[in-house]
Amino acid sequence: MKKSFSTLLFTLVVLAVQAKEIKPQDETIADTYWRNEATGDWFIGFAPKHVIYNNKVWNIATQTEKDGSYMLKLDNGTVIKVSKFNNNLRSITIGNEKPVSCTPITTTALPDYPTKDQRNGFVDNNYQIGDSAILIGWMKDMPQDGWNYGREFGVGIENIFARQEITTYAKMDSLGRFSLKIPLINSSQVFIDWNRSRLSSVMEPGKTYFLLCDFKTGQRLFMGDDVRVQNELLAYPHQFANDRIEDMEPGIMDAMLFKNHTDNMRLSRMTELQKRIDKHPNLSQRYIDYLTGYYLTGQGESMMQARFHIPSRELPQEYMDYVGQLWQQKVKPYTLYRDFSTFMRDYIDQLEENRQLDLADQTVRAVRRLEQQGIIKLTPGESKLLDDYTPLSKEMDRLLNYAKSHEESHLMIEEFEKNDTIVKAYKLFDSLGEPLKREQASINIHSNLTMIDSVGCDHHLRDIYLACYLWRFIDFTRSPLPSFLMESAEQEIQLPLALSIVKTLNDKYEALQNKDLAGAASLRPSTDVENMSDGETILRKIIEPYKGRIIYLDIWGTWCGPCKAALKESHKLKEALMDYDIIYLYLANHSPEESWKNTIKEYNLTGENCIHYNLPESQQEAVEHYLNVNAYPTYKLIDRQGNIYAFDWLHANHPGHLKEAIAKLSK
Questions:
Q1: Which residues, 6 or more positions from 450, have their beta carbon under 8 angstroms from its beta carbon?
Q2: Counting CB atoms within 10 angstroms of each CB, which of 209, 230, 346, 381 has the fewest?
Q3: Mean pLDDT of 428-439
Q4: Can you tell me the mean pLDDT for 263-278?
C-alpha cells in the first residue's frame, strides 16, 4: 500500500524523536518513567498533571517537592512518596504498599530484563467464544500530524476464518487516552494503531495491557499483566518476513530459485536474531520462540503465495516437499501469526489442486456417483458424452493456466463453450439440478477433509480449515449455504467457535435473502440494451439518460474480494463527493442474480443516483472489451459530454485527488 507524504513525514518525525537519548532529571519527575529495579518491569510514570500506575492514568490532586523528594496525592486519595534521586535510584511508595526501588528508563523502549525467563509458549484457550484482552493506553503529547488520522485508536487482528483483518476501535479523549476491549479467538499477532505507531505485537486472551506512546520523549512502553515479550518486541522488533516472487527480477526467478532465496532470507533473519541473543542473553525464551515461529511462518506464506506467479501454478514436488517441512513445524495456537491463515489456505488448496490433476473432472465424478447410488439413470449416449467431455475439460483447465491476460482467458472460454460436446454436457448438468449440486458439494467437502487429514492437522486445525472453507464459500457467493451443506457443517465441525463463525455468516445472508430490496428501481433490466452486441453501443445506450451529468463507473463482481471491500466503504466516498451531481453506475461481471442482489442490499447501494446492471455475460464482456478492462475492480469517470477517463483503483484512499478530477470535469 502506498503511503501519503504526510504519513511518511509523520513516521520520520516519530523516528527522529525516538533517536534521542532520554536523560534522568534530578530537578523534576515530570515526563519520566521508572522501572522496578528487581523485576525489570515498568512500574510507574509521571507527567506534569498525571501519574501512570497499575494500568491507569491518574490525575494528580496535589504535589509537593522538598530537597528532590516528592509527595503526590491522587484524586482518589492515594498518596505516592518519591525519594530523592540517589545513585541512579528512587524509592517509590504507593499508599500502604512496600517501597519499590526504581531506576529511570532512559531509552526509548524498556531496557533488558535483569534475569532470564525460560518459559515456553503462549496462552492457548482452545479457541473460546467471547474471549478478549484489554488494552488501555495514552498517545501522550501527540503532534497534529498524528491527530490528523482521527480520534479513533484501532487494533487490527487477522480473522483466521475469513483471512481478513478485523479492527477494533476506541475513541481517544482530548489528551490521547483510550481504553479498548479487543475480541481474541486465541493468542494473536496484533497491529496497533498502524498509521501512527507502526507497532506489531502479540496479545493473549484474559490479559490487560497498558501502552504508552510518548511523542515528546519518543518512548514506547508496556505496563501490565506479563508484558515482557511485548516490551522486548518494542526494544527489538522483528523484521517483516513477506518475500514476494513478483518483486524478483522478471524472467530470472523460478520456483526453486525463489525457494533458495526465501531460505537465505530466513537464515539471515535467524542469524541476526542469534547475534541479538548473544548480545542480550536475558532475552526471554518466549521472545526467541515467537520470532523463530514468525520467520518460519512467513517463509511458508511467501513460498505458497508464489504459486500465483508461477506459470500454470505447477510447483515442483521438491518445492512442495520443502513447504511441507515448514508446515510440520507450525506453531500453536494457530492464531499466533497473521500469515498462518494464508499459509494454511494456500498450502492445502495447492495440494488439492495437484491431486485433482490426476482425477476425473469433479462434475463428471459427481454425476457418476449419482448414477452409482441409483439417484439418476444415464442413457448410453449420455454416458459416452461424459467420457468425451472429460478430456476436453481437462485440456481447457490446462490452457487457462497459461493464459497471459483476462481477455485471452475469455476468448479461450468462448471457443470452448461453442464445442458441440461441451454444449450438450452443460445441458445435461443443468437438467440434473439440485441432486448434482448436492453431490458436488459433498465431494468437495470430503476431498478437503481427506487432504486436511493427510497433512497432519489436529482436530482444532481440521475444524478451523473446514469452517474457513465454508466461510469463503458463503462470502464468495454472497448467499447462504444450501441446507445440506449446513447440515454437513454441523456434523463435521466440533469446535463451537468454528461452527458459530459459519452459522453467523450464514444467518446474515439468509436474512438478507429474505429482505425486500429497497430502491429496486436502481436495478435496471438488461432489456434496456436488448439485442445489442457492440460494447460501445451498449455502454452509450446505458448512459444516455444521464447525459450532462458526471458518471462514476464501477465494474465489479460478487466473486471479487477487493471489489466487495471497496463497495463496503463506498458510502465514505459518496459522502466526500456529496456536493457534486454524480451518477454511480455499477456493472456486475459474472455475478449470479441472487448474489448480486444480496451484495446490493448488504451495502445499501441503492438510491436515485445509483444504477445497477447485471448484463448477460456476452454483453458484459463486450463492454469490458471496449473499456479495456483487465482487472477488478475497474473504475472510470465519464464527463458530461460522454468522454471516458480511467483512474487508480485505490482512489478511495485519496478522495481529495478524485474531488479535484471531478471539479475539473464539472466546469
A1: none
A2: 381
A3: 83
A4: 97
Q: Which SS3 state, helix, strand or coil, does residue 645 take?
A: strand
Tell me whether the omega of the peptide bond preceding residue 250 falls within 30 degrees of 0, making it cis: no
- With 0-12 / 13-18 / 19 or more C-beta atoms within 10 angstroms meaning exposed / middle / buried, residue 69 is middle
Q: Give DSSP secondary structure letters for 21-88.
A: PPPPPSS--TTEEEEETTT--EEEEE-SSEEEETTEEEEEEEEEEETTEEEEEETTS-EEEEPPPBTT
Please tell me the predicted confidence (pLDDT) of residue 406.
Answer: 58
Burial per residue of 414-453, b for 16 or more beta-carbon CB atoms within 10 angstroms, e otherwise = eeeeeeebbeebeebbeebeeebebbbbebbbebbbebbe
CA 476, CA 604: separation in Å to the nearest integer?
A: 18
Amino acid residing at 522: S
Contact 56, 47 (CB under 8 A): no
Instruction: Convert the pLDDT of each residue in 494-551 to its tens digit.
Output: 999 999 999 999 999 999 999 988 888 899 999 999 999 999 999 999 999 998 999 9
CA distance 62 to 428: 85
DSSP 450-516: HHHHHTT--HHHHHHHHHHHHHHHHHHHTSPPPHHHHHHHHHH---HHHHHHHHHHHHHHHHHHHS-
- Reported as a single tens digit per residue, the pLDDT across 92-131 is 999 999 999 999 999 999 999 999 999 999 999 999 889 9
Q: How many helices (H) and strands (E) are present in the chain, helices listed first? A: 21, 21
- In terms of phi and psi (left: phi > 0; alpha: psi -120 to 50; beta: otherwise), the region of 458 is beta
Cβ-contact 42, 54 below 8 angstroms: no
Mean pLDDT computed over 385-397: 87
Whole-angstrom distance, CA of residue 575 vs CA of residue 598: 23
Q: Give ∠ CA 497-505-652 in degrees, rounded to 5.
A: 115
pLDDT of residue 16: 38
Contact 584, 611 (CB under 8 A): yes
Q: Are 324 and 415 in contact (CB under 8 A)?
A: no
Whole-model pTM: value is 0.82
Which DSSP string corresponds to 141-170? T--HHHHTT-SEEEEEEEETTTTEEEEEEE
Please give the Cα distance from 258 to 319 (Å, whole number). 10
Cβ within 8 Å of residue 648, ≥6 positions away: 635
The beta-carbon contacts of 413-418 under 8 Å, at least 24 apart in sequence, are 416/392
Neighbours of 343 (CB within 10 A): 25
